[in-house]
Write a structure and sequence with these properties.
The complex is a heterodimer of chains A (about 425) and B (about 140).
Chain A lengths: L17 E2 L10 H7 L1 H4 L11 H21 L6 E4 L2 H15 L6 E5 L4 H12 L3 E5 L9 H7 L4 E5 L13 H11 L2 E5 L18 E5 L10 E5 L28 H39 L3 E3 L10 E6 L4 H7 L3 E2 L1 E2 L12 H5 L4 H4 L2 E5 L6 H20 L2 H7 L13
Parallel strand pairs in A: 1-11, 3-4, 3-5, 5-6, 6-7
Antiparallel strand pairs in A: 2-8, 7-8, 9-10, 10-13, 12-13
Chain B lengths: L4 H8 L14 E8 L4 E9 L6 E9 L2 H14 L4 H4 L4 H8 L6 H22 L13
Antiparallel strand pairs in B: 1-2, 2-3
Helix pairs in contact in B: 1-2, 2-5, 4-5
The chains are: A alpha/beta (about 425), B alpha+beta (about 140).
């Protein structure tokens, strides 16, 4: 009888469970929480109240946050529109531009590994008569610039390509895309959620016209996001989705979430000061994790470009081991899998499939998302734990045994079910 | 997802892991599922030719915790049963025993398929009548 649970010693200073899923969300930085606290019960005013000090105080806090966020992306404060989060920002950007520029054209270009907030928004627009091109990605997860160049036609009004991918952390050639879009007179929207505060963003140098942002991926609160909307060269206009009080220059009506906005601003301010050092530290730990796993295990593959990648991301397939069973064995470590069994749809990750990975490799993938509060001791613990469980599960895996015996799995007629 | 204690127990301590000589006439081998679907089970039985009792069972599974548990349980249940008794094991019995949620029912179906496939292989080798249809249900 074999036992799967491999006791790995918990190093000093490590508290279980370990959170290593920072692409999903991140813990709030205590400094952010501290900045927010006065805005719940003391400074509770409505930022739209123009005739008393409660309102002025709230408005001032909002304007300060707008500055902090704008500064991190090289924008001006007046170009920041607050929303409830990145899903709303993506919807507002794409639907708002589609509506505003419908006289100019009906063609939108995006790509296949976008977040569902972009893909499903585009699918809805197709029902309303818009034409959408979904560019493929290369095996490294990046789009081919020539594909984009060819896709742009005289009806193209919008290109929406994410900055960095949420599963594989790959960073698209945003500056090249922006340059091409401006040459062609097409608006460039990017979902910048995973990139904000992790790698440098400069909306002017990169020719980004509209950028979706959210607070909770960079150690800020959930429920608050923003949309950068360019005001000059060119001025971009967006039709509102919500009708109401005309907040946020008419683009997004609704009372502002002042404490959330204050937290978002603070999170951006901290990121601006610490990003470079933090990125270097995360990348070092991430590289160490990869090396440790690769030197202990065979049949492991890194998914997506290694060179063009967020510093805290490692997406690896442990071939011949199913992802959910691997997660079950490391249940004191919070990571994600591209396995079908972990998704609501029972389909393996569409992002990994878009890279050309077989379903079997996609089923075996784990996403490690390192963040500000992870330590080297945690990385060591996670690596040891994963190595132990992968080895045990491979003892259980008929596929691993067959491959080791020299059997070509692709030659077997599987009874697909 | 919350797993039942029994699933966790089988996952942590899988029973009867291994392989037997599949060229032996006494051994029946069932290989079901597909890597693309995220689960493959190989279940083997060794049958006493005199008594038709399954004396030994082994498995290996690539799949989620529930798939591992379903096949581990299947090896426990077939052991000591005659071939025809083993064919009476239903996936619903496995669902009940392991308290599998609806989304994991296919794991139990696959385990039932594996039992049937292993018995089918043994019958084929030994020229035993196919009175009991060895159906691998499509699912």
């Amino acid at each position: 009888m074999s036992t799967i649970e491999s006791p790995v010693t918990v190093p000093a200073g490590v508290t279980l469970p370990i959170y290593m899923d920072n692409h999903a969300t991140s813990p709030m930085d205590p400094r952010v929480l501290e900045a927010m606290l006065p805005y719940f019960s003391q400074k509770f005013g409505n930022a739209a109240s123009r005739n008393h000090s409660f309102g002025w105080e709230a408005e001032q806090a909002v304007e300060n946050a707008r500055e902090q966020i704008a500064k991190l992306i090289g924008a001006t404060a007046r170009e920041i529109i607050f929303t409830s989060g990145a899903t709303e920002s993506d919807n507002l950007a794409i639907k708002g531009i589609a509506e505003m520029y419908k006289e100019r054209g009906n063609h939108i270009i995006t790509q296949v590994t976008e977040h569902k907030a972009v893909l499903d928004t585009c699918k809805r627009l197709e029902k309303y008569g818009y034409r959408v091109t979904y560019l493929p990605v290369k095996a490294d997860g990046l789009i081919d610039m020539e594909d984009l160049r060819r896709a742009i036609d005289d009806k193209t009004i919008l290109v929406s390509i994410m900055f960095a991918n949420n599963e594989i952390g790959t960073v698209q050639p945003v500056a090249e895309i922006g340059k091409l879009c401006h040459e062609k007179g097409v608006i460039f929207h990017s979902d910048g959620v995973q990139a904000l505060g992790k790698i440098p963003i400069d909306v002017n140098a990169m020719n980004i016209d509209v950028l979706s942002l959210t607070a909770h991926k960079l150690y800020g609160p959930k429920g608050v996001g923003a949309l950068y909307v360019r005001r000059r060269n060119p001025r971009v206009q967006i039709s509102a989705l919500n009708d109401g009080g005309g907040h946020e220059r008419g683009m997004r009506s609704g009372t502002l979430n002042v404490p959330g906005i204050v937290g978002f601003g603070k999170a951006c301010e901290i990121a601006g000061q610490e990003m470079a050092a933090e990125a270097a530290r995360l990348q070092k730990m991430r590289d160490y994790l990869r090396n440790k796993l690769e030197s202990a295990l065979d049949y492991v593959e890194v998914n997506g470009s290694w060179e063009h990648r967020l510093p805290g991301n490692l997406n690896m397939s442990f071939v011949y081991v199913e992802g959910e069973s691997l997660l079950m064995g490391i249940n004191d470590v919070a990571v994600s899998s591209g396995s079908a069994c972990t998704s609501a749809t029972l389909e393996p990750s569409y992002v990994l499939k878009a890279l050309g990975l077989g379903d079997d490799v996609a089923h075996s993938s784990i996403r490690f998302g390192l963040g500000r509060f992870n330590t080297q001791a945690e990385v060591d613990y996670v690596a040891d734990k994963v190595i132990g469980i992968v080895k045990k599960l491979r003892e259980l895996s008929p596929l691993y045994e067959m491959v080791k015996e020299g059997i070509d799995l692709s030659k077997i007629e599987w009874a697909a079910h | 997802m919350a797993y039942s204690d029994k699933v966790i127990d089988h996952y942590n301590n899988p029973r009867n892991v291994g392989q037997m000589d599949k060229s032996s006439d006494e051994v029946g081998t069932g290989l079901v599922g597909a890597p693309e679907c995220g689960d493959v089970m190989r279940l083997q039985i060794r049958v006493n030719p005199e008594t038709q009792v399954i004396e030994e069972a082994k498995f290996k599974t690539f799949g989620c915790g529930s798939a591992i548990a379903s096949s581990s349980l299947a090896t426990e249940w077939v052991k000591g049963k005659t071939v025809s008794e083993a064919l009476e094991i239903k996936n619903t019995d496995i669902v009940k025993e392991l308290a599998l949620p609806p989304v994991k029912i296919h794991c139990s179906v696959l385990a039932e398929d594996a039992i049937r496939a292993a018995i089918g292989d043994w019958k084929k080798k030994n020229g035993v009548g196919e009175t009991e249809a060895v159906a691998v249900a499509a699912h």
